[in-house]
Amino acid sequence: MLFNYEYQWDKRGKVIFAPNEDCDRRAQQLIRFIEARVDFPECFYHYKPGGHVAALHRHLENQFFFKIDIRNFFYSISRNRVAAALHRIGYPYARTFAKWSSVKNPYEVGPRYVLPIGFRQSPILASLCLMRSPVMEVVSWAEEMGAFVSIYLDDLVCSGPDKAVLETLYDLFLIAFAEANLSANPNKIVPPTDSLVVFNCNLREGVASVTPERIDEFFNGWRSAEATLAFEAYCNWVSERNAA
Question: Do residues 160 and 224 both lie within one domain?
Fold first, then answer.
């Protein structure tokens, strides 16, 4: 029997796994190989400089927005799916390394063996699977229709100048996620609208700002001077591209 983690624990309703040394070593091999062989799509902002803030700044150009959050993203990616994705990029012993990268699903819903939260290779393997799903076809359609799409792991945000176009794309993305066996979180999806809260930031045409709730949460308790300066710099960074 393969043992690839030390222990697991619950944090804010999420099950997290601590990989063991052998698993971590294989994770480094996987990550190096994938980074050398794979160019991730432009819309994957978790692999772009600036991350979600860069995505927010690009969305400022548009008037309407929607977001779709993938429920239990990692725990929806099956071991077989990982093996197939690794095989397609020419990774040797793809099935063996897929086993090292997966655990028995701690949830009742979903595949039996899945990617866990806590393994360092989970984000890049989940991204590899997502980029080969029907979702990416809809991303291409969105771009052709004048919309902008950003994906940051399990968060997809789409914006554009035409609300009717976004309504069509919203429905198409929900269908594509279902076809990819990735379910949208009904508590975190927002149909096309003229303002949005995403990444604990308010977003509307020309304006992005950290939400007051996030600011209050940060200052609700003692913070070091360094942490305070870093947070204030982050808030300023989020807002630096706002319209005058």
Answer: no
